[in-house]
Design goal:
There is one protein chain. The chain is mainly alpha-helical. Helix 1 packs antiparallel against helix 4. The relative contact order is 0.11. The model has no long low-confidence stretch (mean pLDDT 93).
């Protein structure tokens, strides 16, 4: 919920300072959920299946930086820079 709220803040940012503040807050919100997700996986899976489960959990974190610039570049070029944050909000 915090990440979505900060994403909406990025959409309506009027200057670069406000945008940078909301982007930093987005990073804090998403990193907290990342830690909670990892700890939930460690609690749910036995030690013999933990490596595979953690690998599946980390796939989006590894694929996102590869696909993100292409998708974000297309959206920004076609619809403007705010469209990248609209797409994040929808996701």
């Amino acid at each position: 919920v915090l990440f979505l709220a900060f994403t909406v803040g990025c959409i309506f940012a009027r200057n670069i300072i406000v945008l940078l503040i909301f982007r930093a807050l987005q990073g804090g919100a998403i990193s907290a959920s990342f830690v909670v997700g990892q700890s939930a996986i460690v609690d749910m899976y036995p030690s013999d299946g933990l490596g595979f489960a953690m690998g599946l959990f980390l796939v989006p974190m590894l694929v996102g930086p590869i696909l993100g610039p292409f998708v974000g570049g297309f959206l920004a070029n076609a619809f403007g820079w705010r469209s990248t944050f609209v797409a994040l909000g929808i996701m």
